[in-house]
Design goal:
Layout (H helix, E strand, L loop, with lengths): L15 H11 L4 H41 L6 H50 L2 H5 L3 H43 L1 H8 L1 H39 L1 H6 L3 H27 L1 H25 L5 H42 L21 E8 L8 E8 L4 E5 L6 H8 L7 E6 L2 E2 L5 H5 L2 E4 L8 E2 H6 L7 H10 L3 H6 L7 E2 L8 H15 L3 E5 L7 H15 L3 E5 L11 E6 L2 E6 L1 H7 L2 H9 L2
Parallel strand pairs: 3-10, 3-11, 6-9, 9-10
Antiparallel strand pairs: 1-2, 1-4, 4-5, 7-8, 11-12
Helix pairs in contact: 1-11, 2-3, 2-5, 2-11, 3-5, 5-6, 5-7, 5-11, 6-10, 7-9, 7-10, 7-11, 10-11, 15-17
């Protein structure tokens, strides 16, 4: 791996055309609105294009009137000029109305698409396997919802209307210029191939940098989020320098790709303006020559110069659109990649109901490895009766938590089977299966909100009285009432305004409130003191009566009363039985127990 965890730079978009096709297909349900936007954008451009030529007639009338007044052969017809000006004002007014309609419609469509994408990403997250998130930072996933969706929305909103307006304007302007002077039109069109060649070169060079820029925005977000949430650990181990170096490496790559992409795209405007100015020079020379010969009127020259500007301006806008499309395609490609990631099977045909789960669990020759080539659980067998308390013990890395993940179907076994009430776990719908389990993990998870809301998360329809009763069973009621506001006390984002032990009590109260038929307690009392642990243990004993319970514990004193203790080592059960029987065997369990109480 590169130094300081630096990730290799991303190449250009994997499939630019394919992503465009996917985007067009995705927008397909809004095609009527998009077509309406295109019509309005084209109509606005057409009315805007006609204006200069009509206005040229006023200039001609004014110049002829002045000449007549000077020579004494005529007067300025202000009535005629006023009519022309009102006509031009009306044309620009209609153009503005069409622009207003297309702007409102396009914004509505874009924001609806962004809403839909964010909704689909959020729903996708709930269908994806745990292994996806264990191999990526939070920031990378968050970047899809924030940076990438916003980049797509801004790019799509501006690029579609701008592209239609620019193309319509260019075509319309060419037609209007041809009606004035084919020769001057030819001179103006000579700048087109030069511009197109330049745009194509810049697009080819800049696309890979836009893709890399979007990717590294995700990496930056992930590092900032991790460093912020883990700043206490960073400071405790004095790793500020390492963290800064790692961030600087990623930031340097982001800087490199960002300035190159922006520089290359920024070259378009000045070069296009230079090319446009060449067109002005050509028109001025040829127009003066034709006017001297009487081939065109003064007003036509004015209109033509306006059209030259209107011709080069959309070319510059197209250059800007290609810039936006580079970012948009790079962003939406990452979104589509995420939406196409492998999902968990959520439902099963003729699924078994979980309404009457008893809690009989059988592990039959279970084989599993996070990497199929490296099996860590080789041949796991166990039978658990309804209502039994099953303790799983063993050294770190023995596979205790892995067994719980398999039981919850966060992962599926590579071989053998796990059965609940005689049915393979795969016979249940995944979400319904998980609703049969209550969990208290070693790593507490609480969200920003009141204590009442956090406990009620276990069962949303529970009354306040039921929430308080669960808190009392978890021995959390006393400390809650000492907090400002009691049950209405607001936890911050990481719940750091209460202690680690208090956080654990709240998660235990949530599990008690959920009242699930099967319980999983993974080091549930690891963050509380011995006295509180004893009180919680009594509450747990009452909670676990009549429920099948799996208890993972390093403190062997907490599981002496378990009906069955499974002793794991290197992925296999090497001993099983109750506490007294295992102590009599004087095997591995006895060694662990005696080591703790030596």
């Amino acid at each position: 791996m590169p130094p300081h965890g630096r990730i290799n730079p991303a190449s250009k978009a994997k499939d630019f055309k394919g992503t465009i096709r996917k985007t067009v297909k995705y927008v397909g349900s809004y095609k009527i609105g998009v077509i309406a936007v295109m019509i309005c954008a084209a109509a606005a451009a057409v009315f805007h294009i006609v204006g200069p030529k009509v206005l040229g007639k006023a200039t001609t009338a004014l110049s002829e009137g002045l000449m007549g007044k000077i020579t004494g052969t005529g007067e300025i017809d202000f009535g005629y000029i006023g009519t022309i000006l009102l006509t031009v004002l009306g044309l620009y007014g209609i153009s503005y109305v069409f622009n207003l309609i297309q702007g409102f419609t396009m914004t509505k469509i874009t924001q609806t698409l962004c809403y839909k994408l964010r909704k689909e990403i959020t729903e996708k997250i709930n269908r994806m396997p745990l292994k996806y998130f264990e191999s990526r930072t939070y920031g990378e996933v968050l970047s899809r919802i924030t940076n990438d969706v916003d980049t797509f929305g801004n790019g799509f909103n501006q690029s579609v209307t701008q592209l239609i307006t620019s193309v319509t304007t260019m075509i319309g302007v060419v037609i209007m210029m041809l009606t004035i002077s084919p020769l001057m039109t030819l001179i103006t069109l000579l700048i087109l191939p030069i511009s197109l060649i330049f745009i194509s070169i810049v697009m080819k060079k800049s696309q890979k940098y836009f893709k890399q820029q979007q990717a590294y925005l995700g990496h930056i977000n992930g590092q900032v989020e991790e460093n912020y949430s883990g700043h206490l650990v960073v400071k405790a181990y004095g790793k500020e320098k390492d963290v800064i170096e790692k961030f600087d490496d990623t930031n340097a790559t982001l800087y490199e790709s960002a300035w190159k992409s922006q520089f290359l795209s920024g070259l378009m405007m000045p070069v296009m303006q230079f090319v446009g100015n060449l067109g002005y020079v050509g028109v001025a020379i040829s127009g003066a020559f034709l006017a001297i010969q009487g081939a065109i009127e003064i007003g036509d020259i004015q209109a033509f110069i306006t059209y030259v500007k209107n011709f080069t301006q959309p070319m510059q806008q197209i250059a800007q659109v290609t810039n936006m499309m580079q970012s948009m395609v790079a962003a939406v490609e990452r979104v589509f990649e995420f939406l196409e990631e492998e999902e968990e099977d959520q439902t099963t045909e003729n699924a078994v109901s979980v309404n009457d789960v008893k809690g009989v669990v059988d592990f039959r020759h279970v084989r599993f490895g996070y990497d199929p080539e490296q099996i860590i659980i080789k041949d796991f067998n166990a039978h658990v009766e309804q209502g039994q308390q099953i303790a799983i013990v063993g050294p770190t890395g023995a596979g205790k938590t892995t067994m719980v993940k398999l039981l919850m179907r966060f992962y599926d076994v590579n071989g053998g089977s796990i059965e609940l009430d005689g049915h393979d776990l795969k016979a249940y719908n995944r979400n319904e299966l998980r609703s049969a389990f209550g969990m208290v993990l070693q790593d507490t998870w609480l969200f920003k909100g009141s204590i009442m809301e956090n406990i009620r998360y276990g069962r949303l329809e529970a009354s306040d009285e039921e929430v308080m009763a669960a808190a009392k069973s978890a021995h959390a009621d006393h400390f809650i009432r000492t907090l400002p506001g009691g049950y209405d006390f607001e936890l911050n984002e990481d719940a750091t305004n209460v202690s680690a032990g208090q956080r654990q009590l709240l998660t235990i109260a949530r599990a008690i409130l959920a009242d699930n038929p099967v319980l999983i307690l993974d080091e549930a009392t690891s963050s509380v003191d011995t006295r509180t642990e004893q009180r919680i243990q009594k509450a747990m004993d009452n909670l676990m009566k009549g429920r099948t319970s799996f208890i993972i514990a390093h403190r062997l004193s907490t599981i002496r009363g378990a009906d069955l203790i499974l002793v794991m080592k290197e992925g296999d059960i090497i001993e099983q039985g109750n506490h007294d029987r295992l102590m009599e065997q004087e095997g591995f369990y006895a060694e662990l127990y005696n080591a703790q109480f030596a």
